[in-house]
Structure formats: C-alpha cells, structure tokens
Amino acid sequence: MTLLALGINHKTAPVDLRERVTFSPETLDQALESLLAQPMVQGGVVLSTCNRTELYLSVEEQDNLQEALIRWLCNYHGLNEEDLRKSLYWHQDN
C-alpha cells in the first residue's frame, strides 16, 4: 500500500485552472465513486475548496501510477494533461 497526495493550490495554479479542477458539492459523490473505481485506488478522500483541490489516496503501487491518476483527473474535468501537469504537486510515501 502506498499513500499519496495529488493536487493544485493557489501557489501552483492560476485561479482559472483551479476553478476548472474544483469538485462541486453536487458532483463530489460521483467523482469519488469514479476515482475509487480505478483499479489501483484502494481508498481515498477528495478535498476541494476555492484555493485548492487535493486527492489523498491509498493505492497499489504500479509503474504508471502517476500518469494514470493525472489522466483520470484530466478526463474527469475535460482538461489537457500538459496544462494541468505544470501546476500539479505530488507527494508519495514509499
């Protein structure tokens, strides 16, 4: 099991990008369900405020873990991976 945090905040991303990555209260349950359905995700929490969006996850380690989770986040919000990747931070225990 690996624990990680993936997110953006007011220091890493402009407001227009943060607004596009926000999970609204109306979509949060569906988003978490979709995230937990990913094969590598064992459990998770989504934190989404006006200044940051973070995913705290328990995952199974795999070779393309970071790519798969970034792809999920981009697909969910309809974002270009390169645009989002520049503003993301990733913290992982090993």
TrEMBL record:
It comes from Klebsiella variicola. The keyword Protease does not apply. One of its GO terms (molecular function) is NADP binding. It comes from the Bacteria. It holds the Pfam family GlutR_N. Its EC number is 1.2.1.70. Keywords: Oxidoreductase. Residues 6-93 form the Glutamyl-tRNA reductase N-terminal domain. The keyword Oxidoreductase applies. This is Glutamyl-tRNA reductase. PANTHER family: GLUTAMYL-TRNA REDUCTASE. One of its GO terms (biological process) is protoporphyrinogen IX biosynthetic process from glutamate.
